[in-house]
Amino acid sequence: MIDLRSDTVTLPTAAMRQAIFEAVVGDDVYGADPTVNRLQELAAEMVGKEAAMLVPSGTMGNQIAVLTHCRPGTEVILEADSHIYYYEAAAASVFAGVQPRPLPGKRGSLPAALVEWAIREDDIHLPPTSLICLENTHNRAGGTVVPLEDMKAVYEVACRHNLPVHLDGARIFNASIASGVPVKDFIACATSVQFCLSKGLGAPVGSIIAGSFDFIDEARRWRKRLGGGMRQAGIFAAAGIVALETMVDRLAEDHANARFLANALAELKGIEFNPDDVDTNIVIVKPTSMSIQQLGDELEKRGILTVEIEPDRIRFTTNKDVNRSDIEKTITAVKEILDRA
Ligand code: TLP
User: Fold this and answer.
1) Beta strands in 8-120 (DSSP E)
2) How large a percentage of the chain has pLDDT more than 70?
3) Is 70 helix (H, G, I), strand (E, B) or coil?
4) What distance in angstroms lies between residue 81's CA and the mean position of ligand 1's atoms?
5) DSSP states of 258-307
6) Which residues of 287-302 are buried (b: 16+ CB within 10 A; e: fewer)?
7) Share above pLDDT 90 across residues of the chain, in percent, rounded to a whole number
8) Could you give all domains of the chain from N- to C-terminal order, each with its CATH number?
9) What is the pLDDT of residues 94-113, one digit of tens each?
10) 275 Cβ neighbours under 8 A, 6+ residues apart
11) What is the reported pTM?
12) Measured in whole angstroms, how far is the alpha carbon of residue 124 from the centre of its chain?
């Protein structure tokens, strides 16, 4: 199988399995797992925040951030296609009791002026704004890199209004590798960040949230409330350390494969998309001569897995377990399927 459904499908490397085997572990709820502690220190250092905490998933990391920053009855500004709004089963409303305020972005980027316009004034009819969320890279916009200047502009607005910014940086290392902007510079435009170890970086489980010491102290209580306090979590934190130490630079290969795929698909009749929207490892296309179900099914018959992300759009996500020859096979298969349509 050539699995292009997501970069979440990546399997742990041999070095990760070895690190898992050798991991020194303890009870992390007591703060006594040396491997978790090492991962958290490394992560905080890499992203330029005071403290970091390991969480089971990106979704839990984002939700802990919302819970830590916001009170029930307040409003969270976010992009209308963001993961927190679109893909987290309304968790922010269910758990934090907040009202989302989705705004349309441009290639996933929220215009600062629009954000400022959406911040509520002090009026008893209105929910107070409590948080602004950003996402970089932006998944549903097609893995687009939100430019540093755009993030800075939103952060300036937030600071002026005394509001925190949470960055869903599930793929922030992709954004950094693709743009050449140091990951710390992006994250300096956010009060807190969540990033995933288990996507392109290849670890089997885990995300990190990072912020100030105070933020992480409070976030730790929320993680416990949600049942996310893990015991000998060093077992998978060990793989997370290998991910951060050895898997970041190779994301460039995934980006090159996505670019190669996008350029080839753009040549085909029966597919619509803008190849210039492909910044990183995600390629989202719209077939025009058949339904996405038909295209997806035909690809699956040929051993190629993709996901539907809209009724008319299909996503290919390159990852470390897919090489250039797999991409060439995918291009040939799409061409053959479209030619027959
Ligand atoms: N994204 C998954 C699916 O949930 C859609 C994928 O296959 O792309 N933020 C962003 C931007 C994400 O793309 C994801 C996962 C998450 C958060 C959540 O991470 P997990 O899956 O670890 O909860």
Assistant:
1) 51-55, 75-79, 99-103
2) 100
3) coil
4) 12
5) HHHHHHHHHTSTTEE--GGG--SSEEEEEESSS-HHHHHHHHHHTTEE-E
6) beebebeebbebbeee
7) 100
8) 8-246 (3.40.640.10), 250-340 (3.90.1150.10)
9) 999 999 999 999 999 999 99
10) 262, 263, 265, 266
11) 0.98
12) 35
DSSP 106: B
Ligand 1 neighbour 87 (Cβ under 6 A): yes
Q: Vertex 95, ends 165 and 41: CA angle to 5°?
A: 50
Residue 203: CB atoms within 10 A of its CB come to 27
Ligand 1 atom 19 nearest Cα: 58
Q: CA quadruple 340, 3, 256, 82: dihedral positive or negative?
A: positive
> Which residue type is seen at 221?
R
Ligand 1 pocket member 289 (CB < 6 A): no
Query: Of all atoms in ligand 1, which is nearest to the CA of residue 307?
Result: 7
Handedness of CA 326, 328, 331, 336 (dihedral sign): negative
